[in-house]
Each structure stands twice: as structure tokens, then as C-alpha cells.
Design brief:
40% of the residues lie in helices and 17% in strands. It has two domains: 175 residues, 3-Layer(aba) Sandwich (Aspartate Aminotransferase, domain 2), CATH 3.40.640; 108 residues, Alpha-Beta Complex (Aspartate Aminotransferase, domain 1). By secondary structure, it is α/β, with parallel strands linked by helices.
């Protein structure tokens, strides 16, 4: 979508941490990504004042994910209303990545396009990848004004041409049974989230952020005395558990790792036990 909105010299404001592909998508148009750090101490939620202060005459769009990967934060309506006011005041486009919208746990998902005066300036991104466990099939959609969709259709024709028919048929089945499937998926990930949190939140040296949505948890590992790179590799070498260095999503997430709830519960429990053992052994070695 960014290729249709932007040109060389434009700026796009993106709250950080952000999903890994955003920078490449924005830079492909010749525009510049302007990261706006959020506050890890506030659950990685948006700092609306910082976003406001980042606007310049070259700002063309605001791009964010709610729910967010990697943080699991869900933007509350009050924050979305601030973004909407900002967009309308400065005549900005809003790109809202909502691929995790069906996997919220406690906070209700609100789409910014539904707010007054926003439908005509909002590009909403959706997907079956997360809610229906179909990531490899690369099927998603865009909701935007008709003129924007016309641009996107030409772009998709050049870049994608089309999806195989069997994937489109699977998508129809997925959407026809959406309510049941989404409810089951949400409960699976809620249960896995709670399993991980209950086993790791009390481990000295780790601080777990309980995600409001999605299939990941951010864990602050600075209390272990290791930097993030060392923690991820030493954990893998010692316990064969792989977690992601979250600084890949932006400097705001430095000191955090991202753990995915993407294996069955028995393996997830074992992974948590191995992580806890690694941290405790590390702490014991440091006191010898």
C-alpha cells in the first residue's frame, strides 16, 4: 500500500517496536520511515504526544499495527482517537495493520477506519494468516477508498498476479466458519499465553509482559545480566530453546526477547522449564 501513497521525500511515522517488513515496504516507495519510540514501562503502548511531536511538513502517513507484533499491545479507543485527530489535522493517511484483530484477549479491538471521518483516509490491512493458521498461503486483504484500491489492484497484478484457486476456496471456507474458528484459536492462544506467563513471570531475572493479543510474549531479560544477543544464543546452545532477539523490531525493544506460542502445550511447558533452568543456572554461576 505504501507504494501507492508515498514518494521520495515523504515521511511515515511508525511506532517502534514495529514488524520487520515495514521499513522495506516504506523505503521501496522512496519515502523515509520515522520511528516513534513507545514506553516499555507502559506495556509498549503509544505515546500520543511523541507521535504528535514527530509530525513535520514532510509527514504523509502514520503506519501502525493493532494488535501489535511483537508487543501484543492493543491500541485503546482513546489512542486511536488521538491518531485520528492528528491525521485529520495534518491531512495524513493512516495504514492500520490489523492482522491480529481476532486474537485479542481482554481489550476489545477497535478499527480506526470506523472512527468519524477516517474511512476516506485509512488503509486497513487484514489476513487469515494468524486467525486461521494459514501463514504460508499468503492470503490477506486491504480495505481502503476505491481510488486507493484501484492503485493497489494494478500493483498486485504486477507483483503477485493472483493466488492459486485452492487457496481462495480455502479462504471462503475459513470466512464462512469464521466465528467458530476464531473463537477456538483465541482460546488456544489465551491458554498458551497463560501457561507461559504462569511459569516464567516468577523467575528471578525475567520480567514478562502479559500480551493483550496475538501469539507472542515479550520478556525483559536485562535482569539476567546478559545482553539480548548473548541470552538468545546461550539459551539455544545450553537448552535448545529458540527465542527471538526483539531488538530486531527496533531499539525500543532492546533487552527483550520475543517468545512465540506456536508449539503444542506440552512442548511449550518444557520450553518454559528449560528457560527457567537456564536463567537459574546462570544466576547460580554468577554467585559462585
Amino acid at each position: 500500500a505504501s507504494l501507492c501513497l508515498l514518494e521520495v521525500g515523504d515521511e511515515v511515522l511508525v511506532p517502534e517496536p514495529m514488524y520487520l517488513t515495514y521499513e522495506a515496504a516504506i523505503r521501496a516507495s522512496g519515502a523515509t520511515l520515522v520511528p516513534v519510540p513507545v514506553d516499555p514501562g507502559n506495556g509498549f503502548h503509544l505515546d500520543c504526544d511523541a507521535l504528535d511531536a514527530a509530525v513535520t511538513p514532510r509527514t504523509r502517513a502514520i503506519f501502525f499495527a493493532t494488535p501489535c507484533n511483537p508487543t501484543g499491545a492493543v491500541m485503546p479507543r482513546a489512542h486511536l482517537e488521538r491518531v485520528a485527530q492528528l491525521a485529520k489535522r495534518h491531512d495524513l493517511w493512516v495504514l492500520s495493520d490489523e492482522v491480529y484483530a481476532d486474537l485479542t484477549f481482554e481489550r476489545e479491538h477497535v478499527s480506526i477506519a470506523a472512527l468519524d471521518g477516517m474511512a476516506e483516509r485509512t488503509v486497513t490491512l487484514g489476513s487469515l494468516s494468524k486467525s486461521h493458521a494459514m501463514p504460508g498461503w499468503r492470503l490477506g486483504w486491504v480495505i481502503a477508498p476505491e481510488t486507493m484500491i484501484a492503485h493497489l489492484a494494478r500493483l498486485a497484478l504486477c507483483m503477485l498476479y493472483g493466488l492459486p484457486g485452492f487457496i481462495q476456496e480455502a479462504a471462503i471456507t475459513a470466512l464462512d466458519n469464521r466465528a467458530q474458528i476464531v473463537a477456538e484459536m483465541r482460546e488456544i492462544y489465551r491458554r498458551r499465553r497463560d501457561i507461559v506467563y504462569s511459569r516464567l513471570a516468577g523467575v528471578p531475572g525475567l520480567e514478562c509482559l502479559l500480551p493483550e493479543a496475538g501469539m507472542f510474549m515479550m520478556i525483559d531479560i536485562r535482569g539476567t545480566g546478559l545482553d539480548t544477543h548473548a541470552f538468545t544464543w546461550q539459551l539455544f546452545e545450553a537448552q535448545k530453546v529458540s527465542v527471538l532477539d526483539a531488538s530486531a523490531f527496533g531499539e525500543t525493544a532492546n533487552g527483550y526477547v520475543r517468545l512465540g506460542f506456536v508449539v503444542d502445550e506440552a512442548r511449550l511447558v518444557e520450553a518454559c522449564e528449560r528457560i527457567a533452568a537456564f536463567v537459574r543456572e546462570r544466576a547460580a554461576a554468577a554467585t559462585r
